[in-house]
Amino acid sequence: MFGTSLLAASHIQELNGFIGLSVSKIDRPTVTLPNKDVMLNALRTVQTSLTSVYVMSLETQGSELESYLDEGSRESLRVRLEYVNQGLEFFKQRAPSAHHRYVVPGGSEIGALLHICSHKCFSVQTILSADSIVADYFSALASLLYEIARYLNAAVGHRELEHTVNTSIDH
Question: What CATH class is the domain 4-163?
Fold first, then answer.
């Protein structure tokens, strides 16, 4: 049977590739952004963390990832979660506030890639238990990538479209 942690590993590796592509586009000498070094450091640190989680997912040999983690691994994930939450606060304070609850993914090319990364995190979180440190990590990571995308789009002058859900059936 194809275990959930192996399925998650596949999504994690794909997510890591998209983040790597985003880093390569941000790190070009022609790209000038405020807080570019902070953004690159955050994304590269996330890539390293994702590689660790990916390897742990593979080592479970198909069993549930959460049951595989020892206390040292859990503590490592708690530290990574704290780092992600600090990055989230940094970029949330600098990203434009959304007037509506939903933002249409896009903006700049790099912003769109980061929106894909954010949604990929939700895929991993959905595959894993919603009640685990690993799922908490991916939930926070999704929020961080979303805020970096919004910050980056604003920094390069690409306006994001905000979407208001019309609950009326007459529209």
Answer: mainly alpha
